[in-house]
Amino acid sequence: MPSKDELVAHFSSRLAFETDASDVNADMDASKEFVLVDVRGGSSWDQGRAKGAIHMPHSEIAERALKEIPLDTPVVVYCWGPGCNGAHKGALNFALLGYQVKEMIGGFEYWAREGYPVVNNDGAVIREKDPLTTPVNSTSCDCG
Contact 127/115 with Cβ under 8 angstroms? Predict the structure, then answer.
């Protein structure tokens, strides 16, 4: 069994490298300084994305990031969801350039399922909250 210190180190480390849709939305509402980056491909972006995100496929980060995002600006990346490692690739590419970066766990799937603002090329996409992912009568995941 892991010791208390090992457990604290493990979970503290995860919180240093990961965030979730609820926290990202709250940070956006509070106007915290960071850039939300959708690292999926073009057809995925066109289908729908988190409102306020910028599009930078993970394969383009090394070429574009330093030109488009100041190095001292924190970055949060997301891809499709828990079954996709595109966000890991994106986070690694930002980290290699020296950015402070976090992965939004759950990705676009949980952003959309939790009812946060989604847009596509035609404008706002209205989605009902999924009661399997978030309280339907709350503005956050209620995880404290």
Answer: yes
